[in-house]
Amino acid sequence: MSRILSRLGNSLYMVCAVASKDVLEAVRSKTTGINILMAIGMVLFFSWNSTTDHWEEATAVAVYDPGNSGLMAMLESSPVFDPLPVSSMQELEEAVGSVPLGLSIPADFDRTLDTATTGTEGLVQLIGYLEWSLRFEAGDLEIEYEQQLAELLGQPVDINIGENLVVPGPDSLGRIRPISHTLMISTLWVALTVVPLLMMEEKQTKTMDALLISPASIEQVILGKALAGLFYILVCVGLVLVLNWTWFTSWGLALVGFTSSALLAIGLGLLIGTLADQPQKVTLWAMPVLLIALLPTQLLQMEDVLSAGVINAMSWIPTVGLVKVLRFSLSSGAPLLQILSNLGLALICTALVYGAIVWKVRRSDR
For residue 252, what are the domain limits? Predict the structure, then answer.
């Protein structure tokens, strides 16, 4: 038992030694710094772009009005609100997520408005629904929306939100789509622009040969470089998580999805660095791989207009499955079988990529 623990400790030491060396060398690299800054810039841009609706003056609101009340006409003519009419409570809950607020208007709203007897204190009462990400702002938003509607109606309004927090479904058209896509973009960008250079520098400085004859095994060298790549990915992905943490509903699933995405992306980066023999070829090969991996995930955001055949074909692309897993961690969830099938496909592809890396490095050692 002690011998096994000793070997495990030595192996971990070798992996960490390779990783720390690569992290320090990458810090001193101007190219790495530029790529990291570009990744951070992309994260900030996508985050800003996905929240541009918050800069608009009008508040988007989904409205269920079974009694065809006059409030809908008031909302449509108001410069403060941008109403989205829905025909059922199910549609109302589905809409909340793409819009921050949902309102359910009582069927007898016009009559109670005229008599001003709704509620024990003569308040006009409405039932409100907020998207999950706004749960910590519910109290302040409730007061703000009540004041805006009171000015519109000319009398006090009580919006009862309470526990009516709507968790978006996995097919929601709201921000869970751009957030999951941004996570994948930042992971792939760093992995394919920074990680290959870790292998390339070893070739240029002839230190790969030294590593291969050192006590570190080929597998330990590859794991060390993967760990170094993970460090830089965490810098960018951590920013995505900080900017969007209120949207996550399952941090465990988010961790599994991110880890699987990072392993695949780092493997692709190491493979490019192993195959390329010149720095120029790294960029030449990384860009097509980045495009092939990301284009289907971009199309996934428009799956409502895609044919069933296209959607089925994309389901065999590992990055598409991983984006879906990340989306599930931001939503009400998905069937376990669907999660496992997406993760399984990604892990099989990841194993094949790392197998190819080990095979290529072993051949170069001959």
Answer: 2-50+175-364
